[in-house]
Amino acid sequence: MADEPNNDLHERDTASDKVNKRLIYGRRQGHRLHKKQARLVDETLPRLTPDLAADNVPADWFAKKCDDYVLEIGFGGGEHLAARALANPQSGFIGCEPFLNGVAKLVALVADEGRDNIAIYQNDARTILDALSDAALGAVYLLYPDPWPKKRHHKRRFVSAENLSAIHRVLRPGGMFFLVSDIADYIDWSLIQIGAHGGFAWTAEKADDWRVPPSDWPSTRYEAKALAAGRRPVYLHFTKTARD
After folding, report:
1. 146 is catalytic
2. What's the first-to-final CA gap in the chain, in angstroms?
3. Using H for helix, E for strand and C for coil, what is the string for 120-173?
4. Per the structure, how many domains does the chain have?
5. pLDDT cut 70: percent of the chain above it
6. Is residue 5 part of a domain?
7. In terms of residue numbers, what domain contains 178?
């Protein structure tokens, strides 16, 4: 999903078929995992995977008590999520990414550094959104979602009326929604969709507020590639408000 462009392939959600019959579009795996990565995916990922049927969601997804919870949708290689989790050890970070190779990178980091505030769901973020209670999160990040540039594929774009309503529901009042993309058409699409929803206030006051990343912004390899290719990311920051 996000932070890593996907091929035009699709397959059904497997782990949550009984909960959710939606389609996931994009690759589920690239190159073969290294031996260590494969072992950690087998042994460590299950321990980090959220129990969607837990009594106290999302608190039960972490071994420690957290002051706040954050969701990153499509974390790619996990660089941004890992940096945020390190800088905010009292917050619980939930990362969703169906692409196995990216998941393996983040699992290896958690195993090597002993992080206790990261949960990883290797499947559809919409299922996590469904499982979360109202006002459960302080922030949601959606970084470099697949733009699906062909018009006939626009219905696959993650920014949609349905998904925005789900994000709005799980954010606490005043909670933050961050959207970053290097595709101008996707930014235009997103601003139209978000404006139509009516429950998010864009915080920008001047052009640099969306042209320049926040001072504490952890960059990613995908972002570096976009900049090197001459594509300028746009950083959109919204807060949850009551719907019009």
Report:
1. yes
2. 30
3. EECCCHHHHHHHCCCCCEEEEEEECCCCCCCHHHHHHCCCCHHHHHHHHHHEEE
4. 1
5. 87
6. no
7. 10-240
CATH number, residue 203: 3.40.50.150
Q: Note whether 58 and 69 are within 8 A (CB).
A: yes
How much is the pTM? 0.86
Residues facing 71 on adjacent strands: 94, 140
Cα distance between residue 171 and residue 167, in whole Å: 6
| C-alpha to C-alpha distance for 78 and 45, rounded to whole angstroms | 14
Q: Do 139 and 179 meet the contact criterion of CB atoms below 8 Å apart?
A: no
Query: By the 8 A CB rule, do 24 and 77 touch?
Result: no
Q: Find how far residue 236's CA is from the centre of its chain.
A: 14
Residue 142 lies in a domain: yes
Q: Is residue 2 part of a domain?
A: no
C-alpha to C-alpha distance for 73 and 52, rounded to whole angstroms: 16
- The C-alpha atoms of residue 235 and residue 214 are separated, in whole angstroms, by 8
pLDDT digits (tens, 9 = 90+) for 25-73: 445 444 677 787 889 789 999 999 999 999 999 999 999 999 999 999 9
Annotated catalytic residue: which of 130, 146, 208, 216? Answer: 146
Whether 3 maps to a domain, the answer reads no
